[in-house]
Amino acid sequence: MPVARALRGIGHRTIDAVWRIGLATRFFVATLLASGSSVRRFRLITKELFSTGVMSLIIIVVAGLFVGMVLGLQGYETLKRYGSESALGVMVALGLVRELGPVVAALLFASRAGSAMTAEIGLMKATEQISAMEMMAVDPIARIVAPRFWAGVISMPLLAALFSAMGIFGGYFVGVIQIGVDEGSFWSQMQAAVDFKGDILNGVIKSFVFGTVVTVIALFEGYDAPPTAEGVSGATTRTVVTSSLAILMLDFILTAMMFGGS
Fold first, then answer.
1. How far apart are CA 258 and CA 245, in angstroms?
2. How far apart are CA 85 and CA 78, in angstroms?
3. Which partner for 221 in 139, 160, 204, 235 could form a disulfide, CB atoms 3.0-4.6 Å apart?
4. Does 204 map to a domain?
5. Band of pLDDT at residue 153, cut at 50, 70 and 90
6. Burial class (CB in 10 A: 0-12, 13-18, 19+), 29
7. Which domain holds residue 254?
8. What angle do CA 69, 239, 107 make, to 5 degrees?
9. Domain total for the chain?
């Protein structure tokens, strides 16, 4: 019957999803346990920091600048209706530090660095480089996965902070230089309203969580990818889609936990 087939399909997909979550959790724990050798050889992490963090700087800087400029323009048009143009700096800073900075930077990080990590490890698996390491008694988790994991965890909060800083500069450029909002009010109200613990620290926590989740998803999809061109392509697509959905879901959960009681 169609209903029975539909229920069986839902059941199979649910079991497969739970099974993959379990595999990803085991993969994450194995990565943490194998991180000791990577930390001792920090050269491996610094090499991955360059490809993961430094190579993502341009897209983060440009995107942050234009997001801040759009916030400044739209915010001014909204605040002008209520005679509160001087609060433009507060609106831009809080919007970036609390939400847009960590979320948009994480989405860009998943699209650029996450997909690259998945494709790289998937190609290593397809060309049997990982199997060759195992035959030579080299742990691929410690040699390949763990350095990329810590590079992603370290670089994501820094990229989110840079995104927010460039966004604030973009809002200042549009609001103060182009439109003519008072510069003193822009900066003084921003400094008075933005709280380190309640705003900046919460944004850092968000970016740290996003970086951990995106990096684990990217590495797991690459390590679990079928060793074919089609398998690597599908794993790269799953990385971007799954990471984006996870970022948005976790953003709601973390926001509810941080600001729900205030």
1. 20
2. 9
3. 235
4. yes
5. very high
6. exposed
7. 34-259
8. 10
9. 1
CA-CA distance, 202 to 204, in Å (whole number)?
5
- Contact between 71 and 92 under an 8 Å Cβ cutoff? The reply is yes
Cα–Cα distance for residue pair 4/134, rounded to 1 Å: 44
Cβ neighbors of 156 (< 8 A, separation 6 or more) are 105, 106, 109, 207, 208, 210, 211, 212, 214, 215
Q: How many CB atoms lie within 10 A of CB 39?
A: 12
Label residues 162-200 b or e (16+ Cβ within 10 Å = b). Answer: bbbbbbbbbbbebbbeeeebeeebbeebbeeebeeeebb
> Is 159's pLDDT higher than 70?
yes
Residue 27 lies in a domain: no
Q: Is the confidence at residue 215, as pLDDT, over 90?
A: yes
- Residue 26 in any domain: the answer is no
